[in-house]
Q: What sequence folds into this?
C-alpha cells in the first residue's frame, strides 16, 4: 500500500498535458512594412531609446514609422 499512493501520483503527473508554448507577440507594423517594401531594417540605440531605420533598395534611409505613415496616407479626394 505504501507504494500505491506514490505510483498513482506519478501516473497522474505523467498523464498531464505538456505546457503550451507562449504565442508569439505581434510584429511591429512599421518594421513589417519596411521588409514588405524590400527594405532592410536596422535598429539603432540612440539617447532617447531604440529607433528603427529602413534602408530601402533605392538607397534612401528613413525612420521606419515615417515610412509607414508616408505610405499609409490616403490620397486626397
A:
Amino acid at each position: 500500500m505504501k507504494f500505491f499512493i506514490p505510483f498513482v501520483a506519478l501516473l497522474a503527473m505523467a498523464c498531464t498535458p505538456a505546457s503550451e508554448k507562449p504565442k508569439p507577440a505581434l510584429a511591429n507594423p512599421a518594421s513589417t512594412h519596411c521588409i514588405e517594401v524590400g527594405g532592410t531594417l536596422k535598429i539603432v540605440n540612440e539617447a532617447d531609446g531604440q529607433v528603427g531605420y529602413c534602408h530601402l533598395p533605392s538607397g534612401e534611409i528613413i525612420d521606419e514609422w515615417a515610412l509607414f505613415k508616408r505610405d499609409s496616407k490616403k490620397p486626397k479626394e
In short: Residues 27-77 form one domain.
